[in-house]
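The instructor's notes for this session suggest beginning with a concrete chain rather than abstract definitions. Hand out the sequence below and ask the class to guess, before any prediction is shown, which regions might be ordered.
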Amino acid sequence: MTEARDAAAHNGMTEARDAAAHNGMTGARDAAAHNGMTEARDAAAHNGMTGARDAAAHNGMTGARDAAAHNGMTGARDAAAHNGMTEARDAAAHNGMTEARDAAAHNGMTGARDAAAHNGMTEARDAAAHNGMTEARDAAAHNGMTEARDAAAHNGMT
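After discussion, reveal the predicted structure:
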């Protein structure tokens, strides 16, 4: 993404409040509490990060270019290919997870039901369908994208 507004619009959100509401949250405190975090510092620490630079560095990225390159991707094509996944199974394995249980455990959750419930999902199939997607192809197409190229292009990258 190239503009602050586009960054706010991550997942098609169009307003700052919607951006805060990432995953249907409605209050600043809820937004901060993304993934059950309860403090502003924890919110910044999304995924256990402890410094403002680390927070910007979502997933251990260290440079502004890397931060833009969500998950350490280095080329425009890789950036489009969110996490460089190349196979339907890898796509299902969002973030290089290799086992169904690990995939379910996205974000270090410790109970199968809680893992499945990532974002309030209640069924194993829904868990695979991260964000309420209902078809294997949609699941691969993280965020309702409908073409393999769009799926690779996670976040509308071209």
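Then share the key points. The two ends are 11 Å apart (CA to CA). Residues 141 and 147 are 7 Å apart (CA to CA).
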